[in-house]
Amino acid sequence: MLMEKLQQERLVVSVWAVAAARYVTDWLMANGDALKHGGRRSQSAQFALVEMAIEVCLGQSFTDRLIAAHMAGDQIVGETSMAKYWTTDMVNRVCDRDLDLIGTAAAANHHPMARMFRDMRVMSIFAGTNEIMKNIAARCLGL
Question: What kind of architecture, by CATH, is found in domain 4-140?
């Protein structure tokens, strides 16, 4: 029974990773006043936020496509493994970038982004480690 639900579990982890990355990105856009100089965000902060938003959109599109395929009954083991690997890696990249932009304020335990940073680290081992996801994807690609 457990083996039959792995595809679904990996999709759930992907959805969770995308939602968390979206939350982190949205939070920084709404609360990133420290990124502003003279009332405007610096170009480097703008570019970082755009890059984060693009990663979230890519993860969302990929995950949405796989959810539809899963609901249609398609066997998408390789793709769900790729999505789980990529989205959990992506949420960690987004959290890293978020902390880089916030700076030392995010090091405080009470800061919401410090908690997100810590909580997202473990996602790469949920539903199978990311290394296992790459092994499964490689097999599905005939490598």
Answer: Up-down Bundle (1.20)
